[in-house]
Amino acid sequence: MNLVALAQAALAVAGIVEPGLAPAITTVNQLGKLLKSVGNDLADAPVDSRTGLPMTLADAEARLELAHAKSDQQDNMIRANALAALAENAAE
Amino acid sequence: MRTRSLVLMLPIVLALSFSMGCGTVLKNLVTVTKDKNPVQVTALAADTVDAANQLGELVLQMQASAHKLHQSRVLPVEADNQVQQAAIAFADAKDKAAVAITSAQTPLQIAAAAAPLLGYAGSIVSTLTPVAGAKLTGTAGLLTGQLAGVISKAQALIQQMGGKR
Fold this sequence. Notes:
The structure holds two protein chains of two kinds. By secondary structure, chain A is mostly helical.
């Protein structure tokens, strides 16, 4: 039974559908569908986009390690650039 | 009275319909754990750190644009300083988030670890948006045009990360 449709119908019959209420219900419904699809993705085994084969734990760990290394390098660059800009501004 | 009852009932109906629509995801969010699904959770962690790095690229571009715009006398020094401080806060938060994401045992913990990054990047976006929207000429105009593109990408990414995770 679709309770969203039921709620919309009930509100329409009761004549109390305020502007914005029906879209809110639709949004909740869409969000539910979106979360459901994300949930299904989580339960499925991920696929390596380069090979098209199911990802192994070693593949996933290697990807995570690579992402970490890039993150560290990037964070240091952001900090260095910011400190240089702040020092330059202070010297003005 | 009838109207009042219906209005009172609405949150319950919404909650019920929401939980029915999300039954699968709720089940999966509870049952998908690192000990039972190491590949899924590790791959999700890698995706999340990748997404944070994409946001980091945009932060790098925004902080560089802010400083150049200040040098061109378009952006006040206070705003440039604010952007640079927010960029440092973002980098510090990303450091912590990357560690928390790696040790996370569930998708929900991964999402919780990444969530604060959206706020720091959002504050840079909101500081620079009025400048990027201003009509300027010459190099400053070109720079604000580029900045508008970067801001738009950052906004899309923030929305995507916030909405999907």
